[in-house]
Amino acid sequence: MDINDLQEKILDLKKKNDVCILAHSYQNKAITEIADFTGDSFQLSVMAEKASQKNIVMCGVRFMAETVKLLSPEKKVLLANPDAGCPMADQMDRDMINMIKTEYPNYTVVAYINTTAELKTVCDICVTSSSAVKIVKALPNKDILFIPDCNLGDYVAKQVPEKNLKLLQGGCPIHGKVTEKDVLEAKKLHPNAFIMAHPECKPEVLKHANFIGSTSAILNRAIEGGEQEYIIGTELSIAEHLSFCCPDKKFYMLSKHLICDDMKATTLMDVYRAVAGEGGEEIILDEDTMRDARKCIDKMIELG
Ligand code: 13P
Ligand code: SF4
């Protein structure tokens, strides 16, 4: 069976089984083509709540499927590939943060959405890369413990200098691998290119960027921008989607390391099995986790 046939089968089954397919923008084109909605992590969480279908198949990583479940407890939420996790989300756990909180009792704990549902239960509010600056600015408290991504935290701290951000040593192993040398080399090779980077990159990389934003913000900026050449400082799929939708523009990767194996773990066959009810993993969260982690997400949506 070729890709088109498999996509047709998924589209038929999706209707028959009342399934909404959500895909993060890092997913392959074969998957984004059959998704009901593709977007960054903030957009996906909002769309999940609005979806009228009873079943949701998430093509992304585990924390995204957990976020969908938190927002739509009455829906059956399947993670298309149960092995797709985000290594950053597993860097810190509830006990560790509870211990750190005792040292900083008056701090508001802000969690990047790339955290487990369990960790969210001990945090005050979530942020995504697209909402972090706006939300931190809007918080009444000056003192903020920002977890787990110190690169995103550093970026936010620079945008909101009136706040005091305490950062920990966490971050994305993929974006964190990009070096300043990579940017200097890319600039030398493509001197006229407009440089775009995700805020999960290190500060010494971000300082060279012409534009810093979430996956969707990068996509939109490149689609709408008047420049002809772009250096992409986020996952490879973004450059691939852009090359497809803007064939007249040129897109170069900032580093060959910008490939997230977890985001690439989901195949069209995984989506087929999940939609057919023969695969994927149903996300089940206990009542306490649902209640306490949801507060964090609700506050994010309210302020974001
Ligand atoms: P976005 O919030 O920009 O979609 O990023 C999610 C992510 O995992 C980036 O690595
Ligand atoms: Fe997690 Fe980084 Fe992969 Fe995003 S790119 S899912 S933050 S490991």
What does this structure look like?
By secondary structure, the chain is an alpha/beta fold. The chain has 3 domains: 3-85 and 263-284, NadA-like (Rossmann fold, 3-Layer(aba) Sandwich), CATH 3.40.50; 94-172, Rossmann fold (3-Layer(aba) Sandwich), CATH 3.40.50; 175-259, Rossmann fold (3-Layer(aba) Sandwich). Helices cover 44% and strands 17% of the residues. Strand 5 (108-112), helix 6 (117-120) and strand 6 form a beta-alpha-beta unit. It is globular and about 55 Å long. It starts with a helix and ends with a helix. Iron/sulfur cluster (SF4) binds next to helix 13. Residues 61, 86-88, 114, 172-175, 200, 235, 260, 262-263 line the site of iron/sulfur cluster (SF4).
* CA-atom Rg in angstroms: 19 Å
| Largest sheet data | 5 strands, mixed
**CATH homologous superfamily heading of the largest domain:** NadA-like
Structural class: alpha/beta
Helices and strands, in N-to-C order?
HEHEHEHEHEHEHEHEHEHEHEHEHHEH
Average residue pLDDT: 96
Task: List the bound ligands.
Answer: 1,3-dihydroxyacetonephosphate, iron/sulfur cluster
Percentage of residues assigned to helices: 40-55%
Number of domains: 3
Low-confidence region ranges:
none
- Write the CATH architecture name of the largest domain: 3-Layer(aba) Sandwich
CATH topology of the largest domain: Rossmann fold
Between the first and last Cα atoms, what is the distance in angstroms? 43 Å
- Order of strands side by side in the largest beta sheet? 2-1-3-4-13
Could you name the CATH class of the largest domain?
Alpha Beta
Strand content: 15-25%
- Could you say which overall geometry the principal axes of the C-alpha atoms support? globular
Count of beta strands: 13
Per DSSP, the total helix count is: 15
